[in-house]
From TrEMBL:
<protein>
    <submittedName>
        <fullName>Uncharacterized protein</fullName>
    </submittedName>
</protein>
<dbReference type="InterPro" id="IPR039586">
    <property type="entry name" value="CFAP46"/>
</dbReference>
<dbReference type="Pfam" id="PF25439">
    <property type="entry name" value="TPR_CFAP46_N"/>
</dbReference>
<dbReference type="GO" id="GO:0035082">
    <property type="term" value="P:axoneme assembly"/>
</dbReference>
<dbReference type="InterPro" id="IPR057466">
    <property type="entry name" value="CFAP46_TPR"/>
</dbReference>
<dbReference type="InterPro" id="IPR011990">
    <property type="entry name" value="TPR-like_helical_dom_sf"/>
</dbReference>
<dbReference type="GO" id="GO:0060294">
    <property type="term" value="P:cilium movement involved in cell motility"/>
</dbReference>
Length: 296
């Protein structure tokens, strides 16, 4: 029976056949009633994951309900079930609770640390509709926990961590927590300079735009290389000029734009690095879609 169920689930996943999925689920329910299969919990989770792939929400929810009725232990299988459950939730906060439960279990066992990354990928996908002005405050508490968890397990995909940090800074700003945003950006500045220097200009631009750091320090940072100087001058020009609204360029604005133009030309002619003292051995990270479920 177990072999037949697994074969149907494999066929459903490979051929995207909902009928094979429903046949497998029917056999699983029969086996549960007859207590004829010892590995049903494992197959419940596989069935739920396959149901998600095929868009069979009701079947996926039913599989997970049956799985959790077994009072499963806090292991890798339960983490997978929680991630599947989170994807089935229509409410972001409920989904975040599921993802963070999986994270807390995963952090306890080094072998499961890769699941923290997987949870963060699914979390950000669920959070995406809220990453817009006047909605970000819904995301801040759970996003803080997710970023902190990736740090706690020493996730090596620094580019991915930097992306989440940037989202958190933006969310803090949008929710009016400017002091915390400034403090957090300052704390994480060294992380960007050391691990993701290619993303530092993005953080630097945010700090200028929202005045998250003293202007003297921002100006000093702009002296490190040409690209930062371009960002500083461009952001200051946008902040101080009215030409963006009325379309009338002042002589002073034209001079500033000319300075920026020549700096950009210099950027093309010389090879520069975003910040000093960067690590040239940073590996190219895998895309999140390539890593989800990839580590065992």
């Amino acid at each position: 029976m177990e072999r037949k169920i697994r074969k149907l689930l494999a066929d459903a996943s490979e051929t995207k056949d909902p009928r094979a999925l429903e046949s497998a689920f029917a056999l699983m329910k029969s086996s549960a009633a007859a207590r004829a299969c010892r590995n049903l919990p494992d197959m419940y989770v596989v069935c739920a994951e396959t149901a998600l792939q095929l868009g069979c929400v009701e079947t996926g929810a039913a599989c997970l309900k049956m799985y959790f009725e077994w009072n499963p232990p806090e292991n890798l299988l339960t983490c997978r079930a929680l991630l599947a459950q989170g994807q089935l939730k229509g409410d972001f906060k409920e989904a975040a609770v599921c993802f963070l439960k999986a994270v807390e279990i995963s952090k306890k066992e080094p072998r499961y640390h890769f699941m923290v990354f997987n949870a963060s990928v699914l979390y950000l996908k669920a959070a995406h509709p809220l990453l817009h002005p006047n909605k970000c405050f819904h995301v801040v508490p759970s996003l803080k926990q997710m970023v902190q968890s990736l740090e706690e397990v020493a996730e090596q995909d620094y580019s991915w961590r930097a992306e989440l940090i940037m989202h958190l800074v933006r969310c803090l700003v949008d929710s009016g927590q400017l002091e915390e945003a400034a403090s957090y950006a300052k704390i994480k500045e060294d992380f960007f300079k050391t691990h993701t220097p290619q993303k530092y200009p993005e953080l630097y631009k945010l700090m200028i735009k929202h005045q998250l750091l003293d202007d003297d320090l921002l100006l000093k940072a702009s002296c490190q290389n040409t690209m930062l100087a371009v960002i500083y001058k461009m952001e200051k020009l946008k902040m101080c000029s009215s030409w963006l609204e009325n379309g009338n360029l002042l002589t002073e604005d034209l001079q500033k734009l000319e300075e920026i133009f020549y700096l950009l030309m210099e950027c093309r002619q010389t090879t520069t690095t975003p910040v000093k003292d960067i690590n040239p051995q940073i590996p190219t990270p895998l895309l999140p879609s390539q890593r989800t479920w990839s580590r065992a």
